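The data are quoted verbatim here:
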Amino acid sequence: MKLVILALAAVFVAAAVASSALRAAPTSAPPAQPHQVFYGHVKSVTPKGQRFVMRFDPAWWLTGVAGERACGCHPLSNDYYILDETHRLLTFVVRRDARVAVLTMTEGPIAKTSISVAELAQIVKGKNPKHRRLLEPKAGFWIQIGLKYPNPVVSLDQQYQP
C-alpha cells in the first residue's frame, strides 16, 4: 500500500511540476535520462567520496481542489498549499555536478542563480560563502532523481513561495 501511495505521489508531483504556472523556468535543460521529480526541503548536504549525501524532507505541493481539500480553505492562498505531514527525512545521493539553482535578489526581478552542490551544502548549514543575496534560504526545492541505480539527484531547483 505504501508503494502505491508513493508511486501516486511521484506521478502527481511530476504532473504538478509540468503544469504549474508558479514554477519559474529552470536554469538549464532537464537531464537527458529519465527521472523522478519530488518537492520538499533540503535538511543537509554532506560530502561523501566523489558525491554528496542529502537528507530531504518531501512534501506535497498541491493546487486546485486537492489543495483546497487538504487545507480546508477556498480559495487557496497564493494558489497552492504545501502538505508536509510526517517530516520523515529521505536520503539521496547527489552527483557532484548536479545542477543547483537558488533564488537570489537582483536590481530587477527575482533571479535563479546557478551554484555548486558544495555551496548549497554551506547554505543549508546557514552559511553564505559567496555572500549571495539569497531571497529565501529556507524555501523548498524541486529535485530530479535519475532512474538508474544509485538513483542520484541530478538537479535541484529552488521554488519561489509568495
Summary: Residues 2-19 form the longest helix (18 residues). Residues 1-27 have pLDDT under 50 and may be disordered. Residues 2-54+90-158 form one domain. The radius of gyration is 16 Å.
